[in-house]
Amino acid sequence: MKEEIQRISRLVAEGKLSPEDGAELIEAFVASERGASSEKGGATPPPSPPKESKDPFKGLFENLEKGFGKVDWKEIGGQVEQGAKKGFEAIKAGIDDLAQGKVNFHLFSNEEKREVRLPLNVPADKRLRIENPCGDVKIIGRTESGSLLASAKLRGGSPEEAKARAQEYTAIVEESDTLVVIRQPDVPGLSVDLVVRLPEAAHVEVRTEAGDVDVSEHPAGVRISTRAGSATVRGAVGPVEVSADSGDVTLEDIESPSVTLETKSGDLALSRVRGNVNARTAAGSITVKDSFGKVVALETVSGDVALDLTEPVVGSVNVRTVSGDVNVDVPDGSDCRVSLSSLRGDVASTLTLEDEAVAEGRRTGRLGAGMGTLDVSAVTGDVGLRMRSTTAV
Questions:
Q1: For a FRET experiment, which of 23, 35, 87, 91 has its CA 20 to 30 Å from that of 211?
Q2: Over the stretch 317-369, which tens digit does the pLDDT of each residue have?
Q3: What single DSSP character describes residue 235?
């Protein structure tokens, strides 16, 4: 199968096959391989032991402390950004080619649609897991009743095949003592948009390969894992965790003990978030507005960071970027030690610091008694600390 996929990729690169049809061909080969494996039967081999994961951020920032004189960090930052965005830009280019009318074999172009509506009951003491490989997922909380709407698109090699697949399609809902699972049948050429309505506050977990995820007005924890697609969470009360390979992440009106966000390529935007925040991106900006957390950690390799805190800093606030500017706004009354530094940029503060020490590319001191910590650093970029305006939004 590997050889076939390489051929398909080459055809797409040469403009002889559209990205959409290339994806459908790959789906067909994957489905065929799965079918052949299931027919062979036999015992399922035990899973391989997990490999030890490495934290690229940790290694990167440890290296930043060991000497910079021989390294062009601006160039490094650009290379990181280009590498992280390369795959995503290739996909965008393929879509542009498709829009311009390049050759399209129309494989599996016969398409049928089907809508399935099901009642859905997810008790508050159970978790809801949604596995939707291709398609958007929308979850709406605080509704009068629970329901599932699946809008499916099914393709086939002939009109008859597409129609037969559509007639047979239904979303799969499974329930155990602790879990309710919504998943899709293993059908080639299947794309499904889901709308889930939940009256009760169950913990939600969404897994998708390609598609946007939107969760709103859900008074419980949310966990999202996606390879390609944006993720939006509004009005959640509980832990929030989002992991994405490529896509923007937006959080609004969140009350959470912990927010964890990580993406390889995409911007992170947080507004009116109350809770501890740990947000990291390799290529993208981080914007936190009108928010507060006793512990805040923001890291980006290539991108700007803007942090606007509504309450005084008394805990731990740590902001790091390799290539990008950082601006931090804090309200009056902060009680913390302050460290501002940039290797290849300017450092400025409009706040009066006690025991202030100023050196090239570095400014330290304290606000109040210095109970907490505010540490802001950049390699290539300016660093600024300001008093938060009372009209900031």
A1: 35
A2: 999 999 999 999 999 999 999 999 999 999 999 999 999 999 999 999 999 99
A3: S
Q: Flag whether the pTM goes above 0.70.
A: yes
Angle at 81 between CA 78 and CA 86, to 5 degrees: 120
CA–CA distances in Å: residue 285 to residues 60, 74, 245, 307, 346: 18, 16, 15, 11, 19
Closest by CA to 239, choosing from 227, 224, 222, is 222
For residue 89, pLDDT beyond 90: no
Asked if 347 contacts 326 with a C-beta cutoff of 8 angstroms, the reply is: no
Among 54, 193, 188, 38, CA closest to 130: 193
**CA 136 to chain CA mean position, Å:** 14
As given in the structure block, the two tokens for residue 121 are 């009951």
Q: Give the tokens for residue 313.
A: 């800093």
What pLDDT is stored for residue 389 in this prediction? 80
Between CA 123 and CA 180 the distance in angstroms is 9
Provide the residue ranges of all domains of the chain, joining segments of one domain with +.
1-35+73-104, 108-241, 267-393
Q: Which residue has the tokens 């402390």?
A: 65
Q: Tell me what the pLDDT averaged over the chain comes to.
A: 82
What pLDDT, on a 0 to 100 scale, did the predictor assign at position 6? 57
Positive or negative, the CA dihedral 300, 304, 308, 313 is positive
pLDDT, tens digit, for every residue of 225-256? 999 999 999 999 999 999 999 999 999 999 99
> How many angstroms separate the CA atoms of 345 and 316, rounded?
24
Distance CA 45, CA 80 (A): 38
How many whole angstroms separate alpha carbon 30 and alpha carbon 76?
37
- Candidate from 80-89, 152-161, 172-181 with smallest mean pLDDT: 80-89
Above 90 in pLDDT, residue 67? no
Residues 6+ apart with CB under 8 A from 392: 289, 290, 308, 329
